[in-house]
Structures are given as C-alpha cells and as structure tokens.
Amino acid sequence: MNKIIKPLAIATSILATSSAFALETERELTLDTKELQEVLVDTGAGSLTVKGQTGLDRIKVSAEIIVDGVDDDEAQEWLEDYMDLSVRNENGKAIVCARFGYQKNADCSAKKRLKNSWFGWNSERKINLTVYVPANLALEVDDGSGHTEISDIQADTFVDDGSGHITVTNIQGNLTLDDGSGDLTVEKVTGDIFIDDGSGSIKIDQVTGEVKIEDGSGGIKVTNITKEVYIDDGSGSISACHLGDDLTVDDGSGSVDTCEDIKGKVTIK
Cα–Cα distance between 93 and 146 in angstroms, integer? Predict the structure, then answer.
C-alpha cells in the first residue's frame, strides 16, 4: 500500500504583477526511513539539492513552489489538480515526487493533463527542492531542468538529467550520469564513474575508480584519477593530468593536452 505523507507546514503568499498573478508557497514533507533500501527523486523544472546525512531516521523534503498565471481564488485548487508533491514508500523504495501535470510522469502518480499553452509563453512554473536522505541508501535522480547539487552519498548514485548544471561531490559508491545539456562538475568519488553527456563542459577530480566518458560536445578536464580513464569525445578540448593508470581518448575534434605524470599508457585515436 502506498504511503503518502501530508505536508507538515504550509506558508503561502500571493503576489500580483503587472502582467499576471503569481503564486509562491513553501511546503515541508517527511517519510520514516524504516525498511528503505533506496531513494528515487523524480522532479521537473526547478533547482534540486540532495544531501546525504549519516544516521538520519527520516527523509526530509523542503519545496519552494513558484507558479505564474494563477490568482488567489484558484491557487490552492489548481495545485491540488495539477501538482504532485509527495514522498512515499513503495516496497522499500522511497519515491520523492515534485512535478506538474503537464510534465512527463515516471514513477510519480498521474495528474490531470495540463497543456503548456494554458500559461503565457513567459510564465514560470517550477518547484525548487531540497531533500535530505540517509547517506547509506542508494540514490536515483530523474530531473527535468534546473541546477542540481548532490553530495555526501555513501552508496551507488544514478542521475538522469535533462538540462542544467550538475555538481556531485563526496560519493562513496559508483556514479552514473546521463545528461542532456549543461556543465558537469564531479569531485571526490570512491568508485567508478560512467558519464553519457550531450553537451556542456565536464570537470572530474579525485576519483579512486575507473572513469568512462561518452561526450557529444564541450571541454573535458580530468585530474587525480586512480584507475583507467576512457574518453569518447565528439568535439571540444580535453585535458588530463595526475592519472594513475591508462588513458584512452577517441577524439573527434579539439585539442588533447596531457601531463607527463600519467603513470599508464596514453592512447589517442
């Protein structure tokens, strides 16, 4: 049986602008971590911060909701109809959902379908989310757009991101990143890294495992990697220094710069 935790606190303010109404509201949700093995955070537009904490007995979710084009009379009813903001336990998997009805749904529950054209072209609809999770739980993030920060996870981590800058730090496990566009910064990973990236710069530093990158375009910089590094790159410059094993680069276009301190074999195709 799905378990949905109702918001613990709600603070709402309605702001009028010259062109339309705007709703800004904050909500807090929690979920007991007993019997949980993993966490899925499924979000649409808006910033996302996920932080692991040792010994945490509850998942804590803080949401800032911003919607243009909704007036005071219909605001709360509109959110009930078109927003899924929830945290629940599904067979040991925590599902944290923050989406509006017009966005694609993955594990989030279906809401009424909302056409993009319901708002004006310049309208803003987003949920800025901060999520605190037990550090030892495996983490999966399915994110639409907006800046994403993930830190202090002591388990395998998977991120599927549409667009926006991603920063990942202090992961004690394997890390997989499937990114459409936006810059990537990864630091301090104890485990292997696999990145499938469309466009945007990639910076990776301090990794004790292997690193494999498949990149469409954008500069790549890898430093302080203990094991083998493989890069399949379409276009953009590549810089590699302080590597403890082999470096293989299958390069389309752009410069490849390597330091003399690479301990393994360097192969550039």
Answer: 24
> Distance between CA atoms of 51 and 114, rounded to whole angstroms?
31
Per DSSP, the residues of 162-206 read EES-EEEEEESS-EEEEEEES-EEEEEESS-EEEEEEES-EEEEE
Closest by CA position to 129, among listed 78, 58, 66, 55 = 66
Nearest to 29 by CA among 1, 9, 50, 49: 9
Contacts of 187 (CB under 8 A, 6+ apart): 168, 169, 170, 204, 205, 206
Each of the 269 residues of the chain gets a pLDDT tens digit; together they read: 333 333 333 333 333 333 456 778 899 999 999 989 999 999 988 999 999 999 999 999 999 998 877 776 677 777 887 888 999 999 999 999 998 875 444 446 545 455 543 444 345 788 999 999 999 999 999 988 889 999 999 999 999 988 889 999 999 999 999 988 889 999 999 999 999 988 899 999 999 999 999 988 999 999 999 999 999 998 999 999 999 999 999 988 889 999 999 999 999 98
Predicted structure pTM score? 0.86
Q: Give the H/E segment covering residue 82.
A: helix 75-82
Strand partners, 65: 25, 127
Sign of CA dihedral 112, 116, 121, 122: positive
Backbone angles phi, psi at 157, to 5 degrees: -130, 130
